[in-house]
Amino acid sequence: MKIYIEPIGRLINEFSKLPGVGTKTAQRYAYKIINMPTEEAKNFADAIMNVKKNVRYCSICGNFSESDICDVCKIRPNDTICVVKEPKDVIAIEKLNEYSGVYHVLHGTISPLDGIGPNDINIKGLLDRIAKGGVKEVIMATNPDVEGEATALYISNLLKPLGIKVSRLAHGIPIGTDLEYADEVSLARAFVDRKEL
Amino acid sequence: MKIYIEPIGRLINEFSKLPGVGTKTAQRYAYKIINMPTEEAKNFADAIMNVKKNVRYCSICGNFSESDICDVCKIRPNDTICVVKEPKDVIAIEKLNEYSGVYHVLHGTISPLDGIGPNDINIKGLLDRIAKGGVKEVIMATNPDVEGEATALYISNLLKPLGIKVSRLAHGIPIGTDLEYADEVSLARAFVDRKEL
Questions:
Q1: Domains in chain A: how many in total?
Q2: CB within 8 Å: B34 and A51
Q3: For chain A, what is the mean pLDDT?
Q4: Sign, CA torsion B100/B101/B107/B110
Q5: A66, B19: Cβ pair inside 8 Å?
Q6: A72/A159 same-domain check
Q7: How far is A194 from chain B (nearest CA, A)?
Q8: Model confidence pLDDT, tens digit, residues A182-193
Q9: What is the DSSP string of A14-34?
Q10: Under a CB-based contact definition with an 8 Å cutoff, are residues A102 and A73 in contact?
Q11: CB 3.0-4.6 Å disulfide test: which of A7, A120, A193, B166 passes with B156?
């Protein structure tokens, strides 16, 4: 006898496609769906289809958007552009309520090992925006890993000759960390980038 | 500005309803859906609706089934009935390939604190099945917690006067555990239920 009847096996298989979800977790999720009222399960399924139908990328900055141009590009001044790897980075920054400029989503970072070069990510879109004028500063907010650093450096080398100020998010020891537990790279970086008090 | 656009916020909210899923995890799942091909997302949504439409409970044993009577009840001899709390317990036992009798799913255990009495779980169905004759042994495989033990005892007291053999899954120290790490209750139980070699 097969362990799961077909509809349950199929749903478990679908849930297993989610990141970090193994069979046991997928099984728990499937049971939750089975025990939901039909109306609630329908809302769940609708939300999945709805997101595929109504979420696209802003034609200016490449962030998630419901319309051709996203809400950020519509209303904010475009003299400062924060460059990030993925749309979810925009959300991480927006949560801070700290930054009031616009974004540019690269949809990737330069990674020769994975065969991703400068032309495979949205650098051209950034240059086009800058060519239209009005941009004073570009903040490179790519991840502090090898690919992120390389991408930041590459773009910075392209923009500096244009007279654009290019900055990079500060690295160092995270707030609230004990020195002894800080990772060595961050601690070393904190020494190099130390600030005068 | 709201952090998430509506379709994404809605999907994150739906994923948050799954057991053990917080906002961060729900967000990761939502991104995965956004980045799926539309066809794949459609299959996902379909699998959710399909499970609600096609999964019901077997009218004999109460396990998940696609038809009125489940595959187990259809083909297996009914002289041994294994009584479990939930359909997922059936799956756990089926995975062993050890048991070849039929099941009875109580859909709950007696729990006075939660207001669940013997009439709120499917004990009557079990008695009806036994009244039809042919049942020689009932194996109580409810969980080894207070409610599970109480339920096993309650049902056992009902069945013994009928001349049915009632057994209970063995408790003791799990295979592969060091004695020093075994929990005290299981270790104590292992002493009480010790077997002659």
A1: 2
A2: yes
A3: 91
A4: negative
A5: no
A6: yes
A7: 32
A8: 888 888 888 888
A9: HHTTSTT--HHHHHHHHHHHH
A10: yes
A11: B166
Query: Which chain A residue has its CA at the smallest distance from B72's CA?
Result: A1
Domain that holds residue B20: 6-54
- Confidence bin at B98 (pLDDT 50/70/90): confident
CATH number assigned to the domain comprising residue A47: 1.10.8.420
How does pLDDT run across B33-70, given as a tens digit for each residue?
A: 999 999 999 999 999 999 999 999 999 999 999 999 99
In the predicted structure, residue A25 carries a pLDDT above the cut 90: yes
- Are B71 and B50 within one domain? no
Closest CA to A19 of B11, B42, B25, B43: B25
Whose tokens are 């500063």? That residue is A137
Does residue B164 share a domain with residue B71?
yes
Same domain, B122 and B98: yes
User: A93 contacts in B (CB within 8 Å)?
Assistant: none
Mean pLDDT over A162-176 rounds to 87
* Residues B74 and B50 grouped into a single domain: no
Q: Is residue B177 in a domain?
A: no
Residue B33: its chain A contacts at CB < 8 A?
48, 51-52
Residue A31 touches chain B, beta carbons under 8 Å: yes
Q: Does the CB of B77 have a partner CB in chain A at under 8 Å?
A: no
pLDDT for the residue numbered B175: 83
Q: Name every chain B residue with its beta carbon within 8 A of the beta carbon of A3.
A: 91, 94-95
| Cβ neighbours of A85 (radius 10 Å) | 20
Asked if residue B158 and residue B89 are part of one domain, the reply reads: yes
The answer, for B27 touching chain A at a CB cutoff of 8 Å, is: yes
Asked if B48's CB is within 8 angstroms of A44's CB, the reply is yes
| CATH (domain of B137) | 3.40.1360.10
